[in-house]
Sequence to fold (210 residues):
Amino acid sequence: MSEIPLLVNEPKGPASRLSIVLAHGAGAAMDSPFMEEIARALSDESLRVVRFEFPYMHQVRETGKRTRPDFPAVLEATWRRVIEQLGDPSRLVIGGKSMGGRIASMVADAAGVKALVCLGYPFHPTGKPKVLRVAHLKDLSTPALFLQGERDTLGNREETGAYTLSKAIRLVFLPDGDHSFKPRKASGHTYEENLARAVEEITAFCAGLE
Fold:
């Protein structure tokens, strides 16, 4: 079986011994503006950032035709292949944007990775707040950082307050942020501020793991 193509941002300055591996969300590729900004900013903070694409997104890149995400079993298997390909899971922090982070959270414990970082976790589908995706998060043992916009339509501050989550999860809210951390202009906050806060939180979280 061939190796999965990786996009790597090498750290600038003294490098952390950890690598952070990020998967994309359901509708945007590994080099989307959001993923590029996060990867570039984290590598500026001395983290090696690795990105990859699930099979369906690789197909979209090759054909130009949009298609639905792969079945969960395929998504999970892809994550496991990437972890195996990189080697030494104890030096890997895995996660990603929305769906990419969700699937990472489903393999983290069994894979034995160092930690988990979710950027806008999809706690429920759009418009379906009672269809929760939290069952496996109740017993998660991998240290985890969840960064969530306060008004994320897939799990806002008020909604998530009612969930039963593992004590291994630290949930941080970004002021007035949506699913991609963007606040409203009238809020007095900016996207750049929220992105910087997210990078600061991730960097500190990873530093605390070493």
Observations:
- The radius of gyration is 16 Å.
- Residues 4 and 82 are 7 Å apart (CA to CA).
